[in-house]
Amino acid sequence: MAGRFSPRPTRTTVRGGHVGVPAGVPRQVEAGGRVRTVVPDGPLDLGLVLGPLRRGPGDPTFRAMPDGSVWRASLTPLGPGTLRVSVAGGAVRGEAWGPGAEWLLDRLPELLGGADEPEAFVPRHRVVASAWHRRRGLRLTRTGLVLESLIPSVLEQKVTTDEAYRAWRVLVRKFGEPAPGPAAGGRLWVMPAPRTWALIPSWEWHRAGVDNKRASTILRAVRVAGRLEEAVGMSPEKAQARLEVVPGIGPWTSAEVVQRSHGAADAVTVGDLHLPGIVGWALAGDRDADDGVMLKLLEPYAGQRHRAARLILLSGRAPARRAPKMPRGDIGKL
């Protein structure tokens, strides 16, 4: 991430004092936390960068505040941690709490897209160029964590987003733990550890609306959690290959994971119900495009296909729906 962000030497442990609290932020937010400030080398839209990490408006691990700040709770290799990210005066300020605080602050630049290379992107279509011009603050985040993206992605397989978001919300709140720091007290939650996922009884998966196929995939994944987390040190392509060794994890799921864990600019989501039609409509007026057509249309963006698809989604250019949405499932009938 050389040259992408310039860190300011302001990492401190705050013990009752206050280090440059932005206007509108309660002073008690900083008590006992650690602080790091980084300066982006270009425009940065916090909502666009971190938005893909949010699993629905009720995600218990993520909160976007009216003041523009974003709170995240993560299970890091060093333990649970809470991170608050805010922008003020052209700088991005990270405040963290818990055993995972240092780990989160060490990776703050990458979380904000510091390892991304947006300058490598060249728009080839008018709709993409327009979206790129209007969304100059888009950077691809890199969390450095696999499981926190893998589990909710598995929950999203073959169901409506509402069903998947509800399952994630129910399971995290019931089996996770309150986030450390000022976000504790039930307002923000850390996802369960692998062993906890492995011990969730079958009836609790059922109550959360998760069928046996998705639950079994998650159980197989958490049994090899260590091996999967090692994939952050691999290229996105090799990481996807390792993920897909686990039965139940295919190209759709692995792409959704590395887009977040690796900031993979070229990882295209194939097998999606809507994306091929949206890309086909935006680039060629083809609302019936399949994965093959979509990949062909995205060939000019080789190396940057995920960014191109993301910009197309942000453009708002999508065909009108002419078929009903995916029906809600009823696992009681399975």
Portion of residues in helices? 25-40%
Question: What portion of the residues fall into strands of 2 or more residues?
Answer: 5-15%
The total count of helices amounts to 15
Report the C-alpha radius of gyration, rounded. Answer: 20 Å
Summed over residues and divided by their number, the pLDDT gives a mean of 89
Overall 3D form: globular
Strand order of the largest sheet: 1-2-6-5-4-3
Distance between the termini: 48 Å
Identify the CATH homologous superfamily of the domain at 147-248: Hypothetical protein, domain 2
Instruction: Give me the strand/helix succession.
Output: EEHEEEEHHHHHEEHHHHHHHHH
Query: What's the architecture of the domain at 147-248 in CATH terms?
Result: Orthogonal Bundle
According to DSSP, the number of beta strands is: 8
Low-confidence stretches: 7-30
Structure description:
- With 334 residues, the protein is of the alpha+beta class.
- It has a domain at 147-248: Endonuclease III, domain 1 (Orthogonal Bundle), CATH 1.10.340.
- It is built from 15 helices and eight strands.
- It has helices at 46-50, 101-106, 108-111, 126-134, 147-155, 161-175, 194-198, 202-207, 212-223, 225-229, 236-243, 251-261, 275-284, 291-297, 305-315; strands spanning 5-13, 34-40, 62-64, 70-76, 79-88, 91-97, 177-178, 189-190.
- A six-stranded antiparallel beta sheet has the order 1-2-6-5-4-3.
- β4 (70-76) and β5 (79-88) form a beta hairpin.
- The longest helix has 15 residues, at 161-175.
- It is globular and about 50 Å long.
- The relative contact order is 0.12.
- Residues 7-30 have low confidence and may be disordered.
- InterPro entries: Alkylbase_DNA_Glycosylase/TA, DNA_glycosylase.
- Keywords: DNA damage, DNA repair.
- This is DNA-3-methyladenine glycosylase 2 family protein.
